């Protein structure tokens, strides 16, 4: 049995080290104290006529019927120490004699004689024959007898190395290790090649723990170790799937002064790439090149792959140019990794170009290459190209995987091509490659679209197709029903989940709680939380935030605060989102002082406020008419280096406008433009309303024109505010023109704009036109309000047309409107000679 087998599962690096080891073993005995070269053909035994005279006399004097004792054989061997050839043949003759009991001592004496005289082949053959035989001595006995007999004749320490090797070659690895231990105890240290051979045998036999003990004992005792030793123990770490230990051994040996070779670097780079740790891999690679060691193709492959896995795409592409630009040929693994790198960077065109170059250079893409590129197309918004690759993949005889179908389906759903997505889903089901993830993608999309009936059909189809639903499948259905506010069906799915033995997880419970909170069923939501705790399912941050947010939105901020303190005692660390929910609830309740206290608690805990926090505070202060504090919050945001978002600017502008501070509002508006934000309809409406209130219709109209020029939508509120301002400014023609423009844009008027028109026209004396708008309201089935009828009734009373005034009163009753005190005052108490007052907006 050879020490190294051609079928060994060792890495290429170790096989190369093995070749160096065998080559080094072939030197002559004069070159090395530990010559282990062994010919596969043993030295032939000599013929009897070649015996020395002493041996001849011994054989001649032996009577055929007498017993040959081991002591006598040992005595003869010792007398012929200087004639190893005769001693060997005498031992061979003795073994054949009837009644001779072969002893270990005679064998050991002969081994010493042969080793000392450089009869290496004969000694090795003799050892192998005895170690492999049925009556082989135990390792401890053989070593002990070798040590004892070495005192009877001059010995060569190499014989101990040969013993270890013989046990290894015989497959008796445990015995080889026992020999090694006994030799260490006796102070006969085996040479480095023997130590490496034993280490190799232990690793090949998957005796990893003993291999580690051997290696660490070598290091602790200060035995010489070389790169082969290190490479072998690192390989053991790989077999144990502990690459981090391989890195640890490399660093330790390097710090001990070992000069690393290319194989050691290649192996440690492979180890750090397993984690992956692309930064360490790149550092080792640079260190390797600094020592003028040449990285091999696999090394670059490992490092580039690690960079891609960790998202270090720029470094991956640099290494590609360095390693494969001119030195090494591109391979499939590298090409696939680089395709993924380009896809992650969003450079889909470059990924597709590289894919084409692969094919042109003779590299055949596999299913991984296609899957990576198809996934890249989906994530970069090119579903059509992904489908082309899918067809190309099938044409090449590569069956698409569920991963491929999942990417394609997600891509088409993202592109709002639901028919193509469903067709691919049906294809995946028909090909029997649809996984539970594939079904879950479709179920989630249908639930998101509110198509719960279809989602349930797909769920049932999954069961019929032999695919077991997962917790995610049930969670999607529960989420869909919760979004629709159908908590009865959500609860039904939850119960079915339990009945089927599927354990609800933290997402399940949190989703149900959120659904109940949004529907206002706070007690039921808290009951679900209680069930969750009874089942000892640990809540996560989403759970805690759901409860805090739900209580806050339900106006139970004091309970939310108490719950927060309780959660924090259990180890929950509140986030900015947690405090934002409470702030929003408190501000909606009008409890600004409590909101400020929560804000201070937030900063004390070291939770930095975000834009939503400040926006909520600004909006609350503005609605509470506390513009000074709102502006202070704005200034604090800028001090913290946070940029206001559009809702924050909108809230601040609206507050300033309602407070009549149009100069301040305009300054904030200018700041909004300077930071690169585009004002929306809400911002413009606030400014237009502010200028209307100050009767500055020129500025209001100017903003209106700007809205139109910038393509910002003018809504019903925009036209209502402008028409009201224009009527107040006695610009009736322009007001009616804007009303016509609004109708032409397809904007449907409501009772508010009719109230503005009718009241404003009546105030300006355009009673008939006002009356026409009332008739238009009736024609469009827009119910008038009491204010409109009061205005028109007052006009007819003023004209003395009491019949029309009372007819309008009856019409108001027909609409189901209840006359107010003002209506009765106009009809009953106003004398004809007095002017009837006109009710304003």
Automatic annotation (TrEMBL):
Keywords: Repeat
Keyword Repeat part of the UniProt annotation: yes
SUPFAM superfamilies in the cross-refs: HCP-like, TPR-like
Keyword Coiled coil included in the entry's annotation: no
PPR repeat boundaries on the chain: 156-190, 191-225, 226-260, 261-295, 331-365, 366-400, 435-469, 470-504, 505-539, 540-574, 575-609, 610-644, 645-679, 680-714, 715-749, 750-784, 785-819
Pfam families linked to this entry: PPR, PPR_1, PPR_2
GO molecular function, a single term: mRNA binding
Xref: PANTHER family: PENTATRICOPEPTIDE REPEAT-CONTAINING PROTEIN 1, MITOCHONDRIAL, PENTATRICOPEPTIDE REPEAT-CONTAINING PROTEIN 2
Record protein name field: Pentatricopeptide repeat-containing protein
Species, as recorded: Stephania yunnanensis
Lineage: Eukaryota, Viridiplantae, Streptophyta, Embryophyta, Tracheophyta
